[in-house]
Specification:
- This protein is globular.
- The protein has a four-stranded mixed sheet, with helices on both faces.
- The chain has helices at 12-23, 40-50, 63-67, 79-88, 110-116, and strands spanning 4-7, 29-32, 97-100, 103-106.
- The chain has two domains: 1-33 and 95-120, Glutaredoxin, CATH 3.40.30; 37-93, 3-Layer(aba) Sandwich (Glutaredoxin).
- Helix content is 38%, strand content 13%.
- By secondary structure, the protein is an alpha+beta fold.
- It is built from five helices and four strands.
- A hairpin with a 2-residue loop joins strand 3 and strand 4 (103-106).
Length: 120
Amino acid sequence: MKPIFIHYPKCSTCRKAAKWLKENNIDFDIRDIIDENPSKDELKSWSLNYSLLLPKVFNTSGIKYRELNLKSIVNTSTDDELIDILASDGKLVKRPVLVLEDNVLFGFNEEKWSKALDII
């Protein structure tokens, strides 16, 4: 399975991550997070399979996060409630997202991505 790179094209961190993937010769499929936001099923699967802490999946620096005052909600809501919120708008999801066969990574961290992709 090729990694799936879920990004927001206008995001500078996403552009930096895409460049890094290309520089490291990683072949990947690409998906716009606005056009094809992670679905409830995907989020639920990722949460169960990779023990995600869903509050950490939120884009806490985003305008939408602040507009909806999610800071006061994310730590007291159930996983199902958080999944519903995350699936409602791609801009609420921390990006970029790298979906691997055995892992999913939120946000670009070169060290974590290198380890997950076995890049030395």
